[in-house]
Amino acid sequence: MKKTKNKEKNTEILSPTGRNVRRLCTVLLLIYTSFTIFVLLSTLLSSFKTKTDLVTNFAGFPKTFTLEHYKKVLAEESLLHYFKNSVIVTVGGTLGCLFLAATTAYGIARYEFKGKNFLVSYFLVGMMVPVQVSVLPLFIILRKIGLINNLLGLVLIYVSGISMACFIFQKFFHTIPVALEESARIDGAGDMRIFFQIVLPLCKPVISTVALITSIGFWNDFYMPMILLGKKSVNTLTLVIYKYIGQFTRYMGESLAAVVITLIPIIALYFLFSSQIIEGVSGGAVKG
Prior knowledge:
By secondary structure, the chain is mainly α. Helix content is 76%, strand content 0%. It has 15 helices and no strands.
C-alpha cells in the first residue's frame, strides 16, 4: 500500500510537461525495444534458412529449416575453439576487474590518504578517454614483455579498465553504514576480514551489475583483440564473425549463425541477472 501511495504522489507532483516527457520516453523506448526484438528474431530465423531462401526470401519466414550453417561454422571453422578464447578473456577480465575495482573503491570510500582527490579525478577522466588513445603505448608495452598474440595480455588490458566499475562500487560503499565495520573492528576483525566477510556479501547486487556490464563489453569487444591478437589460434569470436561479415554475400548463412551463437551467452546472462542489474544500479549508482 505504501509503495502504491508513493507512486500516486510522484505522479501527482509531475507537471503536464513532465507527463508528456514521460509519455514520449515510453513511446521511444517501445519503438526501440520493438525494433531490437524484430532484428533479433529476423537474425535467428534467417540463420535457419537455406542459401536459396536467404536470397529470395531474406525478410520472410523460412520455407525450410536447416542447420547446415551452424554445422559449417562449428565444424569447419572450429568456432568452439574461438568461443573458448572469448570465454577465457571475458571471465578472466571480468573477475580481475571486479576484484581490483572493489578493493580500490573500498579504499577510496573508507580511508583518507594523500592524493585521494587526484585518484578519484583520475578514474573519472579514465571514463571519458577513449581506449583508442592508449592503444600505441599498450601495444609497445605488451610487445616488450612478450604478450602480443597472447590471451593473457588481453586479459591484463581488460583488468586495468576499472574506471567505471570503481565509480559504481565507490558510490555503493557510501551507502553501507560504517557502524557495521566499526562493530566488527571492536570484536577484533581486521580490514581484510571486514571487507571479505561483511562488506563484500552486501555488494551482491552491484557485483552482478558491474560483472554483467563489463563482461558484455569484453565479450563484444572487437578493437583490442584485432590489435593484440593477430595470430589465428588466439582469435576471439568477434574476429571470426568479422571474417564472415567482410564477405557477407558469400557467407550470409554462416554470418547469421555465428552471430546467433555469439549472442546466446549475453542474452542468457541478461535474463539470469536482470533483477540484480536494476537493484544494483538503483542502489549503488544512484544513491550517493
